[in-house]
């Protein structure tokens, strides 16, 4: 008698553990509680990054042998004061490991809302480069309000 009672309880627990979560998921789908994000995220592996006094130059791969550059102004990464809104850019330093540097671009309504750069903190990492101090990159950082990644 005790064995059959234990088997009944065990069968009920298995049934409840399998079918109740499935029904709860189906009910949530139909209840309208799901929210779709207003953001569209693009993740781009970084081939090379250069620090410049006006921002960051990011080199990424378009196709097998074609590289493109994106220019992110330093103003995107600086908060004006404690009352201003969060900066448009954020840098997250990666420790040693297998995670490759990349950037995540968050678009909202077709324009860039914010950017996160995931960079290796080791300055001798292969993705960090040095800009020739005599080269004129200043003009590339002027009037940047959006960031379009070219994959075509």
Strand content: 35-45%
Query: What's the order of the H and E elements?
Result: HEEEEEEEE
Mean pLDDT, all residues: 79
- Give the helix level as a range of percent: 10-25%
Major pleated sheet: 4 strands, mixed
Uncertain segments: 18-25
Number of strands: 8
Instruction: Specify the number of helices.
Output: 1
Overall, the morphology is globular
Roughly how many Å apart are the termini? 71 Å
Describe the structure.
This protein is an alpha/beta fold and 152 residues long. It contains one helix and eight strands, in the order αββββββββ. The strands form two sheets. A four-stranded mixed beta sheet has the order 1-6-7-5, with no helix packed on it. A hairpin with a 2-residue loop joins strand 6 (102-108) and strand 7. The termini are far apart.
Please provide a brief summary of the model.
The protein has one helix and eight strands, in the order H-E-E-E-E-E-E-E-E. It has 152 residues and is an alpha/beta fold. It is globular and about 45 Å long.
What keywords describe this structure?
152 residues; 20% helix; 4-stranded mixed sheet; globular; alpha/beta; 36% strand; 1 helix; single chain
SSE layout:
Elements: H1 2-31, E1 39-45, E2 48-52, E3 55-63, E4 66-73, E5 89-94, E6 102-108, E7 111-120, E8 128-129
